[in-house]
Amino acid sequence: MSRKVISTANAPAALGPYSQAIVSNGMVFVSGQIPINPASGNIEAKDITGQTEQVLKNLEAILVASGSSISNVVKTTCFLDDINEWPAMNEVYGKVFHTDPPARSAFEVGKLPKNAKVEVEAIAKLNED
């Protein structure tokens, strides 16, 4: 089984002992992304809309560094600190995953790292050559 660690400066560095993503057997497994702006190292957006936008930018940067893209995502898992904000998160999410969206699960959780409002992890296939 092949296994390649992915790391890019275009997304936030891992906050612990994990990789931004792992490529294995033609698939990319992206760790949960929170809304840290990689340029500043901080969460800048205060609302769920802005935070979701940043999370999806981070996710896309890692996918591109992995040799994949948003359009190759087959599954996401979304974690929200307040499920009542799901409609606003979903509106932003739908703008990014507008055609043939991936399978998805969404959960409310007690608390996210750095008090983020949203975190998204993804599984994608690699680009076909």
Describe what this molecule looks like in 3D.
With 129 residues, this protein is α+β, with helices and mostly antiparallel strands. Helix content is 23%, strand content 31%. It has helices at residues 48-66, 86-96, and strands at residues 4-6, 21-24, 27-33, 36-37, 42-43, 73-80, 103-108, 118-125. The strands form two sheets. It has a six-stranded mixed sheet, with helices on one face. Strands 4-5 form a two-stranded antiparallel sheet. Helix 1 (48-66) runs parallel beside helix 2 (86-96). The protein is globular. The two termini are 20 Å apart.
Helical proportion?
10-25%
Distance between the termini: 20 Å
Radius of gyration: 14 Å
Oligomeric state, counting identical vs distinct chains: single chain
Strand order of the largest sheet: 1-2-3-8-6-7
Portion in beta strands: 25-35%
Features:
alpha+beta; single chain; 6-stranded mixed beta sheet; 129 residues; globular; two-stranded antiparallel ribbon
Write the layout of secondary structure elements.
Layout: E1 4-6, E2 21-24, E3 27-33, E4 36-37, E5 42-43, H1 48-66, E6 73-80, H2 86-96, E7 103-108, E8 118-125
Parallel strand pairs: 6-7
Antiparallel strand pairs: 1-2, 2-3, 3-8, 4-5, 6-8
Helix pairs in contact: 1-2
Tell me briefly what this model is.
This protein has 129 residues and is an alpha+beta fold. The chain is built from two helices and eight strands; from the N terminus they run βββββαβαββ.
